[in-house]
Amino acid sequence: MNILETIHLVKRYAEHTALQDVSIAVPEGQIYGLLGPNGAGKTSLIRIITQITAPDEGKVIFKGEPLAPIHHQQMGYLPEERGLYRKSKVGEQLMYLARLRGLKESEARKRIRAWLERLNLMEWAGRNLEDLSKGMQQKVQFIATVVHQPALIILDEPFSGFDPVNAALIRDEILELRRQGSTIIFSTHRMDTVEELCDYVGLINRSRKVLEGKKSDIKHAYKTHTFVIETDAPVTLTENGYEILQTESLEGGIYRHLVKIHQGSNNGLLRACMAQANIVSFHEQIPNMQEIFIRVVATANMQPPTV
Length: 307
Prior knowledge:
By secondary structure, this protein is an alpha/beta fold. The protein folds into 2 domains: 2-220, Rossmann fold; 224-284, Alpha-Beta Plaits (2-Layer Sandwich). Helices cover 32% and strands 30% of the residues. The strands form 3 sheets. Strands 6-7-8-3-9-10 form a 6-stranded mixed sheet. It is globular.
């Protein structure tokens, strides 16, 4: 089941088309990576989903219903441009925002305290936001985004400015939110984070969606049929359909071969190698999301621009 669908969205600003016929589907209870180069249209799409702006054409469906103001309480949005009140105390500010999201004071206080403790901010609750480091300020904004336990959480570059320790802390909290049933749209340029966190991926380029699907299915679709084989002796392949792209000598008398299959099978490649040497290891070289991202964007950019 999809918690969110956008259907043929179009958004224009004067002479610029920010979104052109963009349809995406976000499965419930998953982490959906929203990817794309700068200026591709990701922010325009997020602003429509969060009802900051409206589309010129198309519609958004949330939980099977046309998107409406009532759904705002079921969403949490962490924008890339942070927007808390620097002169306000951390605890008071979180209480104010939690009440705006419909929480009763007693429940809001309970949840805020729990989050402050989890993110090591309890001792800063009575301090003004401007007294906190940038990383601590971002943790406060993260709490403000999720304190009302929204069904859909939208995170735009949530790791920006975090040191590795706090980035790992927030990563673990994101995974825990998914385990608890939240759906997360995750907009980022960090492909290593996409590899680690995302279940589904949607890629927007030049205002259009150019790729979408389950991450594992996408990686399978973009396989290059290239294999890494390590043997205890060098091998040669004279059979049609197998090409050794590279051979490297490793320590301990091991040889690593990068082989592409043009025609034939994995088993056929193994048999050809086993006739000449013992196999130490054998695995397929699956492209990572960084490689797929570059490949898809480069291909899309070769097409004529949208008029």
